[in-house]
Amino acid sequence: MDRNASALWKGNLHEGEGTLTTESGVLSKTQYSFRTRFTEGRGTNPDELIAASLGGCFSMALSNELGLCGFHPQRIETVATATLEDLAAGWTVTHIQLDVRANVPDASQAGFMDAAIAAKTNCPISRLLKTNISMTASLDR
Predict the structure, then answer these.
(1) Domain membership of residue 77 as a residue range
(2) What is the four-CA torsion angle of 52, 53, 54, 60, rounded to 10 degrees?
(3) Which terminus of the chain has fewer Cβ atoms in its 10 Å neighbourhood, N or C?
């Protein structure tokens, strides 16, 4: 199964602009630029999209892991924060922090943590990124 997205960029790095479009149409000529990545501006940026991708993938994987344990999550909320740093080698996404809160009736914190760790390990986007992903996970009561 292949999924695709296209990026169109016009101009130089600092003053140029681009658009992102996904096959599904959810992103359709969505604006991105130097400003939306490094300062303030309306639009998205690659780092935000990586965070969203990991957060979504992880949430789905956690739902699956909990289901395999016989639990039925009512809500899983994941905030994924991608950190972009200016290193000697250049701008680098150095870390992604996952903060997850979930409402899972009858689940213990220990069982929930086991499922969250398995989801972080087994989510396809986590496997692609492989390193520098940390996580906090808590159950709502």
Answers:
(1) 46-139
(2) 100
(3) N
